[in-house]
Design a protein that fits this description.
heterodimer, A: 164 residues, mainly alpha, Arc Repressor Mutant, subunit A, 2 domains, 74% helix, 0% strand, globular, B: 210 residues, alpha+beta, Lipocalin, 8-stranded antiparallel β-barrel, 5 helices, elongated, transmembrane (chain B), membrane (chain B)
Amino acid sequence: MRSLEQQEYDWYFRACFAPVSRTVFLIVHDRMLAEDVTQEALYQMLRHSRTVSTYERPEAWVRRVAIRMAVREAQRAAARPAKERLAQPVPHHELPDPDVARAVAVLAPMQRAVVVLFYWEDRPVHEIAELLGVSDSTVKQHLHRARHRLAAVLGEEEVDDVRR
Amino acid sequence: MSVDDRLRAGLAANAATVRPAEELRLDAVRRRHRRRHALVAGALVVVLLVGGGAALGWLLSGQGSTGGRGVDPADAPTTLSSPSHPVIPASNWRKVVTRDELVAAGEDPASLREHLGSAEQMPVLLALSQDVFSQSARYAGGWSGGDAGRVSYDDEGRLVLTSSSTGCFRCVFTLDWRLEAGELHLSDATGALDPVDRVMYLGTWRSADG
């Protein structure tokens, strides 16, 4: 018979894998990498199961770990020489909205993560700040700059500023 | 459009393209799990009915009462009651459902591709006993159990199937039936069946008992 720990892990795996993979994908723009990162975050939960299982929401822990790993991966990718990046082009044209994908891809990794968490996961500024381990004002600053840049790239209007 | 709306819509559309293999596998596992539940529920109904019938028979025959010798086994009734109308004997029936029929009934073509693979037809088996029924079908991955539940007959002798499967728990199908030259003809007695159930249950079933 499987242990309770294993059953709980299975449950979290089912609950977290797909939604976390989607968020990570929007940050790293690579499906395989998104799945690897999510898998790694879930593995970390298994490794630290004794501690994580005492948390009120272990799945939130997995999400935080995955998102921080995704930001690091995006930073690593951004730091690679331009020629190396050209060798591994991200196939944005395969996505339903390639313009948004391209526009978000040019943002700095932290800005990208903030935009994804704010617009895709619909999280308030305070929660984004906690997830990324930064202050509320830093998140607002990232969001303000990202919106301004995205509005210009996408040719859309900025209606009002972010105050959440 | 504002940049906010554009981003929300664009990110949602792009995120929807991520369908991890694990999620697809989990969908398959969930389906198998539901089918297994249906089979277990069906088996449980059989056990309860057989067990309950045996216990009742034991009590009625007097062997359950203390001190009594009970009736002579030769005189013991073999059934508790006999229905006043004909019933379908325990039997297995087979028919073939086509992809076109299922699509016409409103099944999602993408889901059908997943279930049937490239097959255009899906053989379906209906097992009926006096008390329980089960339906199974041959999907792309092989035969797999589907709906299951209790068999009864209403006052007019119509076949009443009450599903015990989690997918349609306590769904009741009331069917007119006719046995003719090794074929079972089922039709909707109340007009209440949904289009997919009509495809899966109604029509002519051929005997699968050889």
